[in-house]
Amino acid sequence: MSNQHTTKLSDYTSYPFLIPKIYLDFDIRSDLVEVESLMIIKPKLKESASLILKGNQIKLIAISINGNELNSKEYRLSSNELVIYNTPISEFDLQIIAQIDPFRNTSLEGLYLSAGMLTTQCEAEGFRSICFHPDRPDILSKYTVRIEADKDLYPVLLSNGNKKNSSNLRNNKHRHEILWDDPFPKPSYLFALVAGKLKIVSDKYFTNTGRLIDVKIYVESGDEKYTHHAIKSLKKAMKWDEDVYGLEYDLDEYKIVAVRHFNMGAMENKGLNIFNSKLVLADSETATDDELERIESVIAHEYFHNWTGNRITCRDWFQLSLKEGLTVFRDQSFTADLHSYGIKRIEDVSFLRNFQFAEDKGPTSHAVKPKEYIAIDNFYTTTIYEKGAELIRMLDLLLGKEKFMRGINFYIKNFDGSAATTEDFIESLIKGAYLDEQNCPFDITKFLNWYYEPGTPKVYINQQWDSKKSILNVSFEQKLPSDKNNENIEMIIPILYSCYSRREGGEPLAENELFILDSNKKNLQIRSLTPEKDSPVLSIFRRFSSPVQWESNLSIDDYLFLALNDNDYFSRWDSGQVLMREIIKNRIKEKCNYSLENRFINALKEIIKSLEINDSLFLSTLLTIPGFAELESLFEIVDPTNIYKQSLNFQVLIGNEIQQELRVLSQNILVNVDKQWPMGKGERKLLGTIWAYLALAEDGNIKRTCVEAVNSSSMTIARAALAALKPLDSPETVEASNLFYDLWKENPVVLDSWFSYEASRPHSNGINVVEKLLAHSKFDWKAPNAIRAVIGGFSKNIESFHSLDGQGYLFMAEKIIEVDKINPITASRIVKIFSKWKTYIEKNKEEMYKSILKINQANISSNTREVVELILK
Ligand code: BES
Ligand code: ZN
After folding, report:
1. Which stretches in the chain have pLDDT values below 50?
2. pTM for the complete prediction?
3. What is the rounded CA–CA span in Å between residue 114 and residue 664?
4. Per residue in 210-226, pLDDT tens?
5. Best residue among 119, 261, 267 to mutate for probing ligand 1, ranked by most atoms within 8 Å of CB
6. Pairing state between β 418-420 and 312-314
7. Ligand 1: nearest atom to the Cα of 297
């Protein structure tokens, strides 16, 4: 075990000082940046105390208090802290002059260089690499920032808030300065600064109250033409937040900067969002429909943070889901409103099951509100984000839309301008919704267990049809994986259900009713008003009303019925998924259930006939098999290569059996395929699905069709073609890939998708291919997107990565150690691909273990060490 520092929620104490105002002065020079900070500090206590500031890789030049320079006995400087002794007991000015070196900073945290431009990333703890500061989210200050730099190298100088003035320096005509002022108090993690040669694309937005907001996107020269989608998305998000939540933007300008080297997707810095360029630069020729929709939702997400995150922030990082879970819920709702609620729900559930459920089952499992952490960067997880969003969604369902909105508005009013906890949020939401907590129809403390307990709860359902009384008796039981001592920890589990009559034209016995499972065991009775001969069909967890796994005694007939008839998008899709999981599971166990497979294939044919082109997007999701991670989670002992092979075989079977239907379908949808996004996206998705199945069915023409489609003016079509050819590993696959490379070699964002394609597709000699990609002249070791494309891509090349000689694992371990040297945040995310080692069959397990040990024995960052030690535990 290492002696790394653990931060505990129970250790929280409030900071003994307030810092209402900060003036920052940045002097950008050729080899360093001098940062002068002036903080107005108000002691909370009446006695003199030590002021503890964080600092990381900062060279201290001078400190003074109220204009008097301190001598070296009046403070202590260590590698990560600056402690100033005996500070004044009344308000004082603290001035610090310091220097930083952004030019050699490869971590992409703090201030750093990306393609000649200087840019920042402060969340979660990057501000301490820029200047000495407490750097904790409960210290809110108003910032004024002056930036001075060379005019030719850095013509654009940006920071948060509104621009005050800009001018050339009087004594040096090559240099200029700009002053920015942000009137809203904010935590240091929302600070941002950008300096560089950037082009601006501007637009205007009028709020519902008629205020004019200047919208500006900053990009590298040549990328201006790719900004329109981002601008449109932003304006849609601004309008939606006003219309749905009544929240208006509060500054005069909204700026977004696109940066090539960025650890995350995007960052919500107040008034100055910084985005990974792949989430800004896009049109239908360079990005797929899914990517366009992702960009729309990320732009919205960062915009929505202006209220849920910025105006109201987190007291400490244990409250991270307060802003992230809520904001993910908001961006999911936005996308659902703009496109299709049903489809969006299926996509979100599928993501949750493949990634969050897998996290819950593995060594890095944690509660939405963890109790401790070592590196906070490791806690930006799918549990904090997507499970966190599911908790908000349950509240929305439990309270009902109107009360939920009242509660949210009450919370926002009460906590505006402050730093809150998740408990503050829940309490405030309930108060606002019901006016008095006593009126709340469910037990709030039981609901809070969702925040405190790790793991995916399990619900067991047993239904019994009483044909004499025409009553369906359903018993429910809940079980938490963390409840190892059978303490019967109880959660509030909302279950939305319907109950269908099996008779043709029969009335449903229940339609979208809410049952709240609020104790370990609880029963439900569903009565039929008219006598029913056959047992009815129960549709449960409609809309995926709680983030749980469930087991029931529903029959294959029930699932087939629901896959054909359920009018809830999620439940209908899920019924098909249950059947597919069952089929693949049997195949993996070498117990093919042919009758089930036949009945399923016949159901698919019926679905195709009934849905046809009315709902291409839905049809495509119904035809898609469960994800790889979801399949892995079905087994106690996992043989990854076999799962890959068997799921491919099942797809070959589907392709062979329904090829006639698919060919007819593909003719019928062609008319819509060329329409502009979002129109035609369903047809394009379906066409991709059809191509993939026909390619597996060895359709004679399809390979040529796909090679030619790489040239398409629609990136969705081109990538669908590549995807269809991918598992074949045929000469056409190589031809198509080369063609794609030639078309896009000058566009780094698009080229990343090629890097990922090459690294992940089945090759006989995967490691050699990946070595070549890493040495490719277009590969940039400093860009996390490129690293994730190649190294992350390789982990999806199942046969090479999981090869039994362990070479794939070893190769991966070596690369992760290399990445860790330059960028710990990216390395510690990638290292999670080793999380499942204990679940693998003996040979894979042994080899993977060796590789993890190799990483553990290397000289790695504390970020990566935290994850590796959890994995080994
Ligand atoms: N605040 C985060 C970005 C962030 C996370 C910065 C961790 C530093 C450390 C931002 O709001 C965010 O959540 N971004 C997501 C995308 C979003 C749509 C879920 C991201 O970057 O992946
Ligand atoms: Zn966020």
Report:
1. none
2. 0.98
3. 50
4. 999 999 999 999 999 99
5. 267
6. parallel
7. 18
